[in-house]
Fold this sequence. Notes:
- This protein has 4 helices and 11 strands; from the N terminus they run αββαββαββββαβββ.
- The protein is α+β, with helices and mostly antiparallel strands.
- β1 (about 20) and β2 form a beta hairpin.
Amino acid sequence: MNKSRIAFLATTAVAAAGLTLCLTAGTAPAAGPSACTTPEAAAFAQLDSIAAAYGASIPGGVSTYTHFDKTVLAHAPLAGIQNLTAADLAKGAPIMAILVHGDASGRVPDGTYIVRLQFQPGATDGIASYFDAYGKEVVHVAAVMRDRAEINNIFPDTYEDPPTPSNIPVVTSTHVWHNNRWAVDCTGPGWNWHVAYY
Length: 198
């Protein structure tokens, strides 16, 4: 596997049953003794595939995989998004490939998507639109933008002020609350370390 794996919750229930998940865009996972290699590898392949369908790529080692309750999330930032400007985000810009399966809230249907983020300059509220491999918008959800000071209030000492230059072009993570509500975020130096959550 060429991509690093960050698993926040174990997939032991699936492993204990001797099953693997094969995740494909727009379909339920196929379960069986040898459905595919590993859930992570299958999810990462789907991310690479949808990124390629949009003429984009995913930098090596930045994909994340999370499995909690019955939900599976895998996501990765698209190459070059650290260079996006406020003008790009005002028009709407593709920033991430994401796979969603089993979202109990029903907020995002099962599938693999490109997320397009749209914020007007200086706005704290925006929209994250999920597009399928055919370029069709499947759903859009609320997105929020937070600056370093706001993030440091929630996660103390996350960012220095001013931030120290980093060799990490983009940071993305998964957040899961106790009620299985989830969100992902994305930030980078080109955004002056503002963080978008959706």
